[in-house]
Amino acid sequence: MGEQTQPQTQLQPHHDQTLATEPLNNVPPQTSSPPAKIPCRPRKIRKLSPDNTTTEPNSTQITPTPATQSPKTTKSSKPKATQHRALVVHRIVSRPLTCDGEVDAAIRHLRNADPLLASLIDVHPPPSFETFQTPFLALTRSILYQQLAYKAGTSIYTRFIALCGGESGVLPDTVLALTPQQLRQIGVSGRKSSYLHDLARKYQNGILSDSAIVNMDDKSLFTMLTMVNGIGSWSVHMFMIFSLHRPDVLPINDLGVRKGVQILYNLEDLPRPSQMDQLCDKWRPYRSVASWYMWRLVNAKGAPSTAAAVAAAVAAGAALPHSHQEEQQQHQQAQLIDPINSMFNLGYPSHLL
């Protein structure tokens, strides 16, 4: 009975994306000095030949060890041609919006794809994005700021940084060394302490690392980060846009983006999250930039989604509890929120907004 050939899985990249490869279930190990800047990847699409005779510099292959064959063969022996076939898992990694020309490319695409959005682009300056935090620090900060007003969150964050010896000292081992009692003394609740420790343990165990987060595709990243206690879907979407600068993120649960879509397309009702993908499909592969314009639209219209509520609740959304039901309840409580102003509570500087 012949051996079965394990099929290769291929993903088709969107417009300005790069195809890379990595082995299945390969999680890069944690590095002692996590990258502070997200690399800009070339637009070139790499293709692997069918026989895998060549390997790209950054690609990884797993080749099964051939079985030992006897020097003597019989007429009934059948060659196992598929035995040496390499297993390659493809991964799509998009260029961050901080790369030269990416925001301009996004605006050109959105102008051509959506005339209504084009008119909105004309009256607002383009967004700017720049790297200012490592992934672990950004995720830690989002947990600390949840459910707090900006001033209170900043006060606790400042004391937390002092405990760690500065922002450069916010590392998994340092966070795990802080006891719940120490964290309680600076105003961090017991629940948030458990969230911080859960994140740090996943880093320490190699489940997550800064390098893995930077290089992971969007779908895998969403799955991995929502495994962390205290980090919900809204938090991940904001992290992907404002910390990793991923170009094609659509926060379907964000009230500001949904309200902006309603205003832009003159819809009678607020679109449901389940409708957002279809309504915004024309924005691919730059839905992050289009979402930014939706927040601007809501802010300019003075729609009842302003400062007081999301200032407290968006910070709450920065690290929503793992319970999906509780996450929904907190979003319902934040019905009057300004998405732009709320980003301050996540530690995003104003010039990025």
Automatic annotation (TrEMBL):
Residues 23-34, 50-62 have a biased composition (Polar residues). CDD domains: ENDO3c. Residues 144-299 form the HhH-GPD domain. One of its GO terms (molecular function) is alkylated DNA binding. Residues 1-83 are annotated as: Disordered. Keywords: DNA damage, DNA repair. Residues 1-12, 63-74 have a biased composition (Low complexity). GO terms for biological process: base-excision repair, AP site formation; DNA alkylation repair. GO terms for cellular component: nucleus; protein-DNA complex. Belongs to the alkylbase DNA glycosidase AlkA family. This is HhH-GPD domain-containing protein. It comes from Cephalotus follicularis (Albany pitcher plant). The lineage of its organism: Eukaryota, Viridiplantae, Streptophyta, Embryophyta, Tracheophyta.
